[in-house]
Fold:
Amino acid sequence: MRDIPVSVLVVTKNEEQRIGQCLSSIKGFAEVVVVDSESCDNTQKIARQCGARVINYQWDGAYPKKRQWVLDTQNIGCNWVFWVDADECLTEDIISEIKGLFENGLNEAGYFVRGQYIWKRTPLSHGLMNNKLALFDRRKMHFPQIDDLACDAMGEVEGHYQPVLKPEFSDEKIGQLENVLLHDAYDDEVSWTRRHERYAKWEAYMNMHKAWPKDPVRSRDMLKKISRTSYLRPALMFVYSYFLKRGFLDGRAGYEFALSRKAYCEMVLDAMRNKNLK
Structure:
């Protein structure tokens, strides 16, 4: 196999500090496309220098939002797509694993991919990892349209929910990759807090309007429904990340990261109490 038959799609806006490192980690795929929201920095220039194809995007305030818009309207070369954020990097292990899937035959419509956090330049070997359905067959899956346009906190890009199986493929299976992406989302305390306050406002809106789509994995969907609005969630999130997922083995970085997860859950509950979500 010459190239892995996957289109890697990276959505960006003013990511000149990160996009070069991200794109340099993407190797051996048939296509790399950067979907950029009219950045006013050097994001597009750097992306082209790295060999990526750049697509310009301007949101019209409606659905489809950015990711599904790309799938619906643009000439994407492969049926399989892999969504990678600008603050993520691929490892040789995950590239090899994806290559092996295509060499040995695919049995699933998509795959969840875990992200290993880098906290203040320290890679965390334990603790909470995000897990998103980032690699999938676009013929079989899509991003659902949900009722969140009245909340401006997320804006042009789909929020923190998973793509779902199209009705005609509802019996297809979803898999899990063993290897991880590296996820370096921390710049500084101010930007981290502002970004998560925005996320929390959106999540609170979703909770109060019961706007969440079903997670494609039933057990995950049930757990999320139970935990999203629980006042115990902040404490449970800290316990889960620091103790159950052994974040304490990462020392001070693991402790600080577990506290940050607790703080985010508190932001969501505060936003729900304030009810100022537009």
